[in-house]
Amino acid sequence: MTTEEQFRSWGWRLPFVASILLIALAVVIQLLLEETVEFRAAARPQRRRSPVVDAVRDHPRQILLAAGCYLAINLTYYVFITFVVAYATNDAILGLPKHEVLTAVLIASAIELFALPAAGWLSDLVGRRTVFAVGALLLGAWSFAFWALVDTGSIGLLTLGLVVGLSLLHSLMYGPQGALFSEAFSARVRYSALSLGIQVGSVVGGAFAPFLATALLSGFGSSTAIAAYMALGCAVSAGCTAALRRRVG
């Protein structure tokens, strides 16, 4: 770990440098993947309008449901990796050392790296919607236990809360989401419809999460309000997942 001065000077660049390896890996995987029958059929030359227009016209319900599903993914993620750090290191609340809290987030994130493919594999066995919905409901319930652990002021219990919440339960949503959303749209409009749904869900769920969490803490004076906010978002995503239907072709 770096000191505050080292982080501001050069440490912040390290994750971006490391991402070069992930980009290279993604390119290799893409080159080795064989396109599905649906995509090969969709790639045949045809005169078409904008796929975005077709997606909005033909699949508005599916796009909104995909956005609702993605809402909890981003909401809980940004609470875990940004708001928790600010909350736990605030001298007026817990006053934990920043490097210890960041280490806890790093540990949970590293474990999630391995939990994600496991969650995807599990969704192959028992179904995307089942794994996603169960993950959302469990994470919603865990939100209350998580904040109780954080409020003890113990870095060990905070780490435990992050490992269960971010590494394990969040993975049950994030792991199968790619396949879940892809199967909800036809190959002809899949990229456009997915992008619309995910971007809307990202903005509504993630962009405002730290600010809303701060407002709830200020208004209610208790982390229980934040837990309820997370649980509500998870309940919405679980409901949208149950309503999302698979499409073929």
TrEMBL record:
It is a multi-pass membrane protein. The keyword Transcription does not apply. One of its GO terms (cellular component) is plasma membrane. Keywords: Cell membrane, Membrane, Transmembrane, Transmembrane helix, Transport. It comes from Pseudonocardia thermophila. Residues 1-249 form the Major facilitator superfamily (MFS) profile domain. The chain crosses the membrane at residues 12-33, 63-89, 101-123, 130-149, 155-175, 196-220, 226-244. It holds the Pfam family Sugar_tr. One of its GO terms (molecular function) is transmembrane transporter activity. This is Major facilitator superfamily (MFS) profile domain-containing protein. It is found in: Cell membrane.
